[in-house]
Amino acid sequence: FAPWNDPEEKPLIQFRNVSKRFGDFTAIDDLTQDIFEKEFFALLGPSGCGKTTMMRMLAGFDAPTEGQILIAGQDMARVPPNKRAVNMMFQSYALFPHLTVWDNIAFGLKREGKDSETINARVDEMLRLTRLAKFAKRKPHQISGGQRQRVALARSLAKAPKLLLLDEPLGALDKKLRQDTQFELMDIQEKTGTTFVIVTHDQEEAMTVASRVAVMDEGRIVQVATPDQIYEAPNSVYVADFIGDVNIISGRAKTQGDKVAVLWAEAQPDILGTTSKSFSDGQEIHFAIRPEKVGISPDEPADAQNKIQGKVLDIAYLGNISTYHVELPTGHIIKAQTANTRRIARRQITWEDPVWLSWTDTAGVLLER
Ligand code: ATP
Question: Which segments constitute the ABC transporter domain (predicted)?
């Protein structure tokens, strides 16, 4: 990956206090964010959070109501879409059905009036990049969905934009093909060095392809970080819950030495965690822990930092992993996940079994909200 967090790295895109209102509805709310050169940046969030509005403003189809958008240091306020070094690939990447793959890719270059030598060289380069050389003479209906998607990508990159916007680019592909195509997309992004901004509501996709992920909620970016930071250190219950599977236990904070405890239920052990944040006693606090960080065993673990008893309600066997739903005496359901890596003669855990759940003090995060 490009060293996006390198202070030397120049931001390609700067949102400065950008708001976008439609009538009295605020779609983007005072948003400030940099996106660096060569980054693969994902905007992730539920439907209606403002992802497409951000893209449309970048592309120049919409202007912000307030604030500034700079691309390569230049204020975009008066720069129309076709004058921006930006290209956009839409979810419905309509190719021209009557044109060959080659002509589809060449289309934008021809319209710009480039000479044929330049066009030939550029189209050939794009065909190589997207591994489409042998399909050059075919029409869109004579190639597969995945190949059509690559043609659309080749066409979008032909004019060598500084920035490519991808709006749910893989939405039309089935899951398996989607996953393969994600790797191709990463590969192509790296080879071309183009800044990619992708919009998706698919968290797995964002986590796979992006060097940084911005999680959005109601017109604001609530966290922006690398995929592993987002997953390991979400800054709110909203982000923890949006990315992957998580257990949330809510209660009141109580500082105990260098740890903070979550007081959450009668006659249950307090949940302890370490955190760099300070909480005042009695304050609302949430403990978020991923299922794979929760150990599960039939016997009481001798030296666990945190342990709690429950009863198995459900087991989902997913081949590589199994997920257990464990009910606590309080009625809380905790999910624990184990990797099925070995064919071990482990004592089987089945439905209704009493089990122990355990985790270390650093396995989860303590959150304010
Ligand atoms: P999705 O994943 O469903 O595409 P999104 O995150 O891309 O959602 P946007 O399309 O950016 O969401 O819309 C953000 C909010 O702004 C939505 O509540 C939408 O209804 C509203 N909105 C978007 N465009 C307009 C418009 N032209 N007029 C009024 N409201 C709009």
Answer: 13-243
